[in-house]
Structures are given as C-alpha cells and as structure tokens.
C-alpha cells in the first residue's frame, strides 16, 4: 500500500513540475535513522516521501488525524503513527525508538509547524536519535506548499545534508545538545544552498 500510494503521488505531483533532488547519496545510511526536514506546507511531506523512494518513511503525525476509521486506516497504511502534540510525554518516543531499533526511517519536521521562517527547532528528532543511538539526516525543501503553488507550477527542490551522528565521547545529554546545534546549523545551511541553486 505504501509503495502504491507513493508512486501514484509521484506521478500526480510530477504533472505540476518535476522535483530536483540534490545529494541523495547522503541517504545511503546503514540501519535506521531519523530524517529531519524543513516544513512549510503539506506538499513537502509528499515530496519527501517520493524523493526517498525506494526507501520508506514512517511519519509522526498528530493524533487528530487518527480519529475517523477511514483516516486511521489510511494513515496506518502510509506508515504514520499518532502523537499527542499538546502532551507528548515519554510514550511519544516509544514507537519511533522501536522503529529505529528495527532499522526503519522515522520522518520528523522539527520546526513543529508549517512556516517559511526559521524558527527554534523542537527537540523530538534529537531525542529519538539520541536514545536510539541512530544518526539524523537533515533535509531542506523549497517549492510548492499548497494547491495554489502547485497550479502556479512553483518548482520543487530538495537537498539531503550529511548525516549527524551522536558524539561517542560525550554523555547522552551533552551529546544531544551537540546534535541539536549541528542540526540547526545544517538545516540553515541547506536552505541557503537551495536558495542559491537554479
């Protein structure tokens, strides 16, 4: 179901303009990892999934999307799992930690909200990666954010940064602080790179 939906999305989205993907070789990571992408609309979620094919992403999604039977079924088929964004708590990282330990990819949007501005990042991506001892792959997207942008044929671009690993010589808490700083810098630099690309 995941592959079917994602390849159909690829065909549909490509009708509005083909995506340019940069540095995809950085996705060749053995084992599970967290993919942390900038977030400016709902289209970036779709293009991120398409650009990672044939790899599959397990997305963290707000619990409200699982309230109806059909939506719950659809989200589960697309490998999404619910999280309470108002009261995350320790259980919020239980599912992603299990996925990461099993070698899966967990997709997170660390800005926590759709925005074209740079905002302080939430710590979820770093917390997951730190406790699961997996790297974080920073990703930046620029392009259409909504239906209007799609019909205007705004060109989509996505760039994959270098994986960020937990420092081996530091305690967990300090190591996660280092990862957080590296993630913020990497996402900023990747967005700058995209703006300078044709």
UniProtKB/TrEMBL annotation:
<dbReference type="GO" id="GO:0016020">
    <property type="term" value="C:membrane"/>
</dbReference>
<keyword id="KW-0444">Lipid biosynthesis</keyword>
<dbReference type="InterPro" id="IPR004552">
    <property type="entry name" value="AGP_acyltrans"/>
</dbReference>
<comment type="similarity">
    <text>Belongs to the 1-acyl-sn-glycerol-3-phosphate acyltransferase family.</text>
</comment>
<feature type="domain" description="Phospholipid/glycerol acyltransferase">
    <location>
        <begin position="33"/>
        <end position="144"/>
    </location>
</feature>
<dbReference type="GO" id="GO:0006654">
    <property type="term" value="P:phosphatidic acid biosynthetic process"/>
</dbReference>
<keyword id="KW-0443">Lipid metabolism</keyword>
<keyword id="KW-0808">Transferase</keyword>
<dbReference type="InterPro" id="IPR002123">
    <property type="entry name" value="Plipid/glycerol_acylTrfase"/>
</dbReference>
<dbReference type="Pfam" id="PF01553">
    <property type="entry name" value="Acyltransferase"/>
</dbReference>
<keyword id="KW-0012">Acyltransferase</keyword>
<keyword id="KW-1208">Phospholipid metabolism</keyword>
<dbReference type="GO" id="GO:0003841">
    <property type="term" value="F:1-acylglycerol-3-phosphate O-acyltransferase activity"/>
</dbReference>
<keyword id="KW-0594">Phospholipid biosynthesis</keyword>
<protein>
    <recommendedName>
        <fullName>1-acyl-sn-glycerol-3-phosphate acyltransferase</fullName>
        <ecNumber>2.3.1.51</ecNumber>
    </recommendedName>
</protein>
